[in-house]
Design a protein that fits this description.
There is one protein chain. The chain is of the alpha/beta class and 942 residues long. It has 36 helices and 24 strands. The strands form 5 sheets. Strands 4-3-5-2-6-7-1-8 form an 8-stranded mixed β-sheet, with helices on both faces. The radius of gyration is 38 Å and the shape is globular.
Length: 942
Amino acid sequence: MTEDLSPAERYAAARIRAAEQATALAPFRDLYEFGLDPFQIEACEALEAGKGVLVAAPTGSGKTIVGEFAVHLALAQGRKCFYTTPIKALSNQKYSDLVKRYGPEKVGLLTGDNSVNSEAPVVVMTTEVLRNMLYAGSQSLRGLGYVVMDEVHYLSDRFRGAVWEEVIIHLPDSVTLVSLSATVSNAEEFGDWLDTVRGDTEVIVSESRPVPLWQHVLAGRRMYDLFEEETDHGGRGAARREVNPDLVRMARMENSRTYNPRERRRGKMVREADRERERRQRGRIWTPGRPEVIERLDAEGLLPAITFIFSRAGCQAAVQQCMYAGLRLNDEESRQRVREIVEQRTASIPGEDLHVLGYYEWLEGLERGIAAHHAGMLPTFKEVVEELFVRGLVKAVFATETLALGINMPARSVVLEKLVKWNGEQHADITPGEYTQLTGRAGRRGIDVEGHAVVLWQRGMDPGALAGLAGTRTYPLRSSFKPSYNMAVNLVHQFGRHRSRELLETSFAQFQADRSVVGISRQVQRNEEGLSGYREGMTCHLGDFEEYARLRRDLKDRETELAKQGAAQRRVAAADSLEKLKPGDVIHVPTGKFAGLALVLDPGLPAGRSNSHRGYEYHDGPRPLVLTAERQVKRLASMDFPVPVEPLERMRIPKSFNPRSPQSRRDLASALRTKAGHIVPDRHRRPRAEAADDREIARLRKEIRAHPCHGCDEREDHARWAERYHRLQRDTRQLERRIEGRTNTIARTFDRIVALLTEMDYLREDEVTQHGRRLARLYGELDLLASECLRERVWEGLSPAELAACVSALVYEARQADDAVAPKVPPGKAKAALGEMVRIWGRLDALEEEFRINQAEGVGQREPDLGFAWAAYEWASGKGLDEVLREAEMPAGDFVRWCKQVIDVLGQIAAAAPVEQSTVTRNARKAVEALLRGVVAYSSVG
């Protein structure tokens, strides 16, 4: 091709190549065996140009390459790079990847329970660790040039999302931020906010999957394509995709009956042959069992596969079912390789613990190529599963949705058993965003030509709704940012109260709230323009027509109010008269469809009580059952009696009277007409209207008549304009109240928190007191409660095990509330201290209510949960794993996770405790040592 170019063109091309080779991107590209995608190149070029970047791309598209380029740039420039992730497992994985490339001397790791080479130029850490470093003013921040925030869409997380925003807001301006996100529908909005708080930020959005995704439904023995023609393979192509008509027909047939009711109404029974054919067709539709699904995928070459089951117990049961079915996905050579890796990775676990952890059953499953993956598993076990899956030695994994959160475990296929999951409060349909996140695992880049998402057929499934899930890419990023007590004291300490308030108003939460009022603000502006026009239309040359219109409006409002009061009094009087009716009373129904003479059969009962005649329940007063003079038996309502009713006569109702018998009704109606047909009811005289004697109305009428505008010839024209002005002004005020409710919401919450902390002597204006400095070192959901416990010396004199039990109440939260059984707690001092903690929480809860700090909005202190206190106490006392887990009735993974969180808070308490509480400091450190043993101590790095 170069022969076809002119000498000038060849020279220009050479210049371009030389310029490209001179960039930092050129040697970085050489580190990879494959070429970079356009979005990766665009993001890397923006980074090298000194801009921050937000990269939003599907799972598995390789957006972490942009983060790795930031590491490359930092090392080339002699600066530091911090690589943050939302979960420890991701931090460990990224640490291992970077160590392989740059060596252990250049890469460090900082998580809640691991610190490896923390002063290295590249440090991988959880986001909370970086937040804590920023508030503490850590020396490690010196020389920091780049921060990579992997999985930045985590800032939507209800419990932890605020940490991401804190980091983004407080990072020094000199730091370049690299934000990596899943595909979100409002990436541009998030990018605009980053541009506002961080400076020049390039937004790069890629919506094309590197591996095409095919969508299927597995029903019985057949795998159906979800779409008739999948021309854009799960991307956002312009092609219109129709739901597979076979699926629609199958859903319709399953939901139909064996015969058509319309046909029956016309007297035509469906033929026996049709019913038999339908039964045979239904016999081919069923939800296949788990072993059956794996065998089917294996037969079609669709393994390895991840099956998402939204239940830990379901994941474990799936592995057992596959083993009982005799499923074996590995040959002998693979089995041997699995055993070698597993034995090597679990060599540090004592033999007596292996049986407790279900090691041998777990190993047998792994040797067959089958495993579970969920948060209840021991971290080491989960990491082994991940490693074996990536190596192709485990081919079927049954996982909860936590696997979708960034762990690098791509598969050829993803299976969804159900489209409903428990969200902590109720069973809810999964969202399009969750569906995209789960199915994003399907298709391994560089290995698979295409990925496959398989949904199992369930009774009542709507193929159209499934197609909507698969075809929608709406996953908006919503801020969950809320100020906390710890955040407040740290901000006031660093910036003072006024500057802190301004900083919080730069949060993404406030940015989104402010944007949401833009449309309302525009409507207010339009309304104000309309008001000025209406004001001009109602201008009167004789006087202030706005004042005159207000008098007329006040008069109308007062008349309406009195009329309502009068109507209400009449309704009460009518209801009272109905309650006095008895069976046999002859009355005159004043109005309604059944107006006229009537005999009371049953007076009805007061609100909320069942009536003996028909078992009805009434909530609007008595509803008498009557026989009319026209032989109808009807139950009347209060609306039939706008005025009180009085009996005209009395009649005996025969015991033999049957309201269902036409003859009975005819005879009694005839007797009614004979008895009372000649009586003319008294005409009810309405009482004198209260308005006639009301002094306020008299005053208003007098002022109206005396007003200059009352004599204007164009008075009614002006009045029409005034009425329009009033309506528009009322609407505008409602809009302004909505704007006021949405703007400055974060700052107002901050003001309430500061007011409470000032009341409790944690703050004095811009000064942070000694108590406030202690609170600044305590991070966690119950930060203020922990600080108050130190302040009141609640933990003084506790043993290390007792202190561990008490601190567990600050971190533990049961997965499902169980109020029926009181949790077991250690006796003696620990029990008293736990009781005191609950008492202090009650005092804080009352204070929060007084200062309008609302836990429902994610701010404030929840009640401490004592459910882990006994397990923490037993483990810190040296009891064996078997005994502790049996009594705690808790999976090993949960036990380890809660222990590590207790250890984390114990470390904070040891650092924050006052000097005079040296025993608390000493015993907190001893408690950490006591907890950090056995399964809890196994390192998850390496």
